Amino acid sequence: MANPILDPDAPAFTRRYMNLADPRLGAQALFATDEFFAPKERMLEPQPAVFIPGKYDQHGKWMDGWETRRKRTTGYDFCVVKLARAGTIHGIDIDTSHFTGNFPPAASVEACYSPNADPASAPEDGDWREIVPATTLQGNRHHYVEIADTRAYTHLRVNIYPDGGIARLRVYGQPKTDFSRIERGTLLDLAAVENGAYLVAANNQHFGPASQMLMPGRGVNMGDGWETRRRREPGNDWAIVALAAPGVIRAVEVDTAHFKGNFPDRCSLQAARVEGGTDESLVTQAMFWPVLLDEQKLAMDKVHRFEKELAKLGPVTHVRFNIFPDGGVSRLRVFGEIQ
């Protein structure tokens, strides 16, 4: 099966936005009508689904995902998922990897905004809106669905018709943060996905998506970060990040945790306040943005913090992170005061 991180045919939203259904960030599978063969929580596991020949449990063949029993009545199965953050959903991946004779023939997805209530306690209640209409599924493949809906949601209801198994559910989107509650002068990580930042573009993501640099905490291993292929030609690698809100940058941290024989030799940052255009048009514009941080030497497996080295550019909305010539970076933090 193709990995969406490395698959050039996967939609851009799989590399650009965070997975709002990631349990590491607080997402939960709250309720399922049935989970006889495989538990609902397994559908949200962050690692790709695997198949283990010959592995069985008390219910039958062990499957890496959520799987219901064969339905012998009318109706269909569904699962309610609480997202890690209330956010706007840009795309969904319904992944049936390794489910061949036991995948659902079709699925749909509904969403609701319920900040104070738990829709799982009464699954038939709530203002549910259909964001993915009933869609035909195939076995052992990713089903990418782009969503054009600007509303924020907190919960999803995944419907499968009539039964079967889903290996993984990925919900790519942008958290909605109320910045009006942030006290003026407070330093906030404007490059954090949980605050609403997202990856605009990166020139190479061969070993790991650049969006992982924006995730919370330190990377758990070398696979939990941005890593490019070995560069065999002149130039350098880069990634463009849309900040969570316009702000004046006061400090930057570049963390090369776990990258030892493959960390970049140097890095730099450019930044600008962008108005108008599209994300795609920024790729060309970013080459000419003012320098926020001149080239700085990097070391392996270390947090590098820069403050006095930063230029005074005023409020900015985007940064271009350059690494020379290539390599891996675990996390990028851009601390600023919201303007």
Q: Could you characterize the architecture of this molecule?
A:
The strands form 5 sheets. Strands 1, 2, 6, 7, 8, 9, 10 and 12 form an 8-stranded antiparallel β-sheet that branches. Strands 13, 14, 16, 17, 18, 19, 20 and 22 form an 8-stranded antiparallel β-sheet that branches. This protein is globular. Helix content is 2%, strand content 41%. It starts with 12 loop residues before the first helix and ends with a strand. With 339 residues, the protein is an all-beta fold.
In short:
This protein has 339 residues and is mostly beta strands. Helices cover 2% and strands 41% of the residues. The strands form five sheets. Strands 1, 2, 6, 7, 8, 9, 10 and 12 form an eight-stranded antiparallel sheet that branches. Strands 13, 14, 16, 17, 18, 19, 20 and 22 form an eight-stranded antiparallel sheet that branches.
Name a few traits of the molecule:
339 residues; 2 helices; mainly beta; globular
Write the layout of secondary structure elements.
Blueprint: H1 13-16, E1 18-19, E2 28-32, E3 56-57, E4 60-61, E5 66-67, E6 77-95, E7 106-112, E8 129-136, E9 142-146, E10 152-161, E11 165-166, E12 168-175, E13 187-189, E14 198-202, E15 226-227, E16 237-255, E17 266-272, H2 282-285, E18 291-297, E19 303-306, E20 316-324, E21 328-329, E22 331-338
Antiparallel strand pairs: 1-12, 2-6, 3-4, 5-11, 6-9, 6-10, 6-12, 7-8, 7-10, 13-22, 14-16, 15-21, 16-19, 16-20, 16-22, 17-18, 17-20
